[in-house]
Amino acid sequence: MRHDLSGRAALITGGARGLGAGMAAALAGAGAAVVIADLREDLGRATADALGQTGAAAAFVPLDVTDDASWERAVKATIAELGGLDVVVNNAGVELAGPLVDLDPADVRRMLDVNVLGTALGIKHAFRAMRPGGAAGHGGAVVNIASVAATTALPGIAAYSATKSAVDRLTRVAATEAGKLGYGVRVNCVYPGAGRLGEATDLADAVVFLASDAARFVTGAGLPVDGGP
């Protein structure tokens, strides 16, 4: 079943390459106009250009997800470019591995900044734009990229797991706030994992589902996308 996102405008963080680029392509394939938001301007513009060559409406905006002002500029630029904002995918993330006995405080701070603060700021600015009276003002959907590490104890990635557990909690609290305050914004997350060797499209299709009207009554949920045991 193809979920129709025609007429929707989506911003994808960390969309210049890898899974983020796959999500952007899937959203565009479902009919959404997309903005690639990334620190890597060279790769981001190339990804947007490649999507544009397929007939999709695609653009690039620079974004440091850890910086509040950068978020404000990126959302403003997205709305100016696409004429609105209906979907925000908080995909940008950092995974730095190692046993707890070798924990590097700098690595932990980096993951906290990108994975936790970056996601929280993404939710903040999505809400401000999408809520009634906001610059877009028609509600929408936020999809956060957590990890199976948020729900399973995996050796060597304790700090990373902690940050992705925080993404899961942010998702659920944000969904409750949005509902109680009448924002009209659904907030969900996905747990990518490695139950089997998956493809980028496996995760991307789940993101498209959560962004679509097929998930119109789904909020505050975490969706495992791990292929099973």
Fold and architecture overview:
- This protein is an alpha/beta fold.
- The chain has a single domain (9-223), classed as Rossmann fold, CATH 3.40.50.
- The protein is 44% helix and 17% strand.
- It is built from six helices and seven strands.
- The chain has helices at residues 18-29, 41-53, 68-82, 105-130, 158-180, 200-211, and strands at residues 9-13, 33-38, 58-62, 87-90, 140-145, 185-192, 222-225.
- The chain has a seven-stranded parallel sheet, sandwiched between helices.
- Strand 1, helix 1 (18-29) and strand 2 (33-38) form a beta-alpha-beta unit.
- The longest helix has 26 residues, at 105-130.
- 48% of the residues are buried.
Global mean pLDDT? 95
What is the second-level CATH architecture? 3-Layer(aba) Sandwich
Based on secondary structure, the structural category is alpha/beta
Helix content estimate: 40-55%
In terms of quaternary structure, the protein is single chain
> Largest beta sheet: what is the strand line-up?
3-2-1-4-5-6-7
Tell the overall outline: globular
Order of helices and strands: EHEHEHEHEHEHE
- Biggest sheet character: 7 strands, parallel
CATH homolog superfamily: NAD(P)-binding Rossmann-like Domain
* CATH class group: Alpha Beta
